[in-house]
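Homework-ish question, so no full write-ups if that breaks the rules, but can someone show me the predicted structure for this set?
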Amino acid sequence: MAKRQARFTPAEMEDDPRLQDQSPDLWGEEFGEVARGMLASAVRCFAANGFHATTTRDISAGVGLSPAALYVHFPSKELVLYQIMRIGHERALANVQGPEVEAAVDSADRLRVLTRRYTAWHARHHVAARVCQYELNALTPEHFEQIRELRHRTTEVFREAVARGVADGTFAQTDVNRVVRGMLSLGIDLVRWYRLDGPDSPEELGEFYADLALRMVTRTAPDEQSPATVSRPRNGRKASSSSATVTG
Amino acid sequence: MAKRQARFTPAEMEDDPRLQDQSPDLWGEEFGEVARGMLASAVRCFAANGFHATTTRDISAGVGLSPAALYVHFPSKELVLYQIMRIGHERALANVQGPEVEAAVDSADRLRVLTRRYTAWHARHHVAARVCQYELNALTPEHFEQIRELRHRTTEVFREAVARGVADGTFAQTDVNRVVRGMLSLGIDLVRWYRLDGPDSPEELGEFYADLALRMVTRTAPDEQSPATVSRPRNGRKASSSSATVTG
DNA sequence: GTCTATAATTCGATAGAC
DNA sequence: GTCTATCGAATTATAGAC
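A: Not a homework solution, just the prediction itself:
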């Protein structure tokens, strides 16, 4: 028996409030109307049950078409996932670039804007973002490498912002790589639990996490703070400046 | 064609440094030697390729046995996952309880110890912990609910520690639920990127993240800090004290 | 308890009509 | 571009010998 135990049927997914996000048309003009519907359906399916537990029948049923219809618009199920991943990561990267970010010249302002935008984007698009975070190793190695590059560029935006604040004295001395990991983790992990009908709007959560990010790097008056909270050089193994990650 | 595109074969997984953790025998005396080997093999497979992309052949091949041997020790593939999940979450909960934690009576010390232990545990057991975080919705609804309860109790340990520090004036006024979410996200998200052969030992990372957690709730001198980093009451929608999560 | 062999099912993808 | 029908492969789990 190769039974499939998908927990959500297409019908159940339709109105589940946990699967609502603000990505009605994240897919731009790049695809036709039917293909966009397929992508939207696939995002819901992948987010609810995972890539491998989703069948091509599930995806096409979500737009009211037969299983074969999918292959008119995409050559394979993996390529449907890849397009979701590519567009999601491209949009997330563009969201922490551009004039709204560049306008913040003060180091603290820059980090605040970055974290606010990064967090709010992941919250607004949390269903698509969840697929982007959870299904990376369902990609082919070639596609995985392309997505990794987009993720690396996003990380670099944060790394530069923090490093500049440390260099100009706005932020405390700290391990830049470690603290950037922590900031990104806030935005990445929210796709696991966030829901639009919960208590936090994307903007409110973005503001709150921006506060946390700034607190992570804020200079503190030495005797206002208990010793261990003051950043200090680490001993033990080598510094983490050359660390590489599994997923970029 | 129902082709399987697993990125890691059993042979490749054997020596991959990214799949090494300190869980040689996380499974206690509860299982026999062969069953423990099956669990260890399954953890590697699930972590590398995901539950649905792992076959029962992969798991049993990891201990040098035939596919049918698995069913002598476990009634189904899902129950292998459930045992991993149950033991992992039980151990993670026990790790933030017990005398070592109770010994820290000062609110700041308590939060520091909690975060250090939570982080270090996830780092030490990052391969098993990755399965625990990423494969939750491959469980049956009944098993999922049991794991959710264990996760809820772990969250409560943090919530109580933060709430007590706020109440006794050690920590700043803040949204307890939101800030606890942020702290847990640090420990949870590290299973995505952590590797034992990287620059951070579990203990070092635990210490660093404990610093970050304390900074999240530290009282700040009002004029040492830029305004937005000072915690303030939120407007907009209702407070998040009754928020529920998808995964607990 | 482990094996070989296979049953029962389901999947991704294609063929060919319209 | 969409459909029905189906192929070939691969899966979970079981049967029965040893």
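Now go work out the reasoning yourself. Hint: The radius of gyration of chain B is 20 Å.
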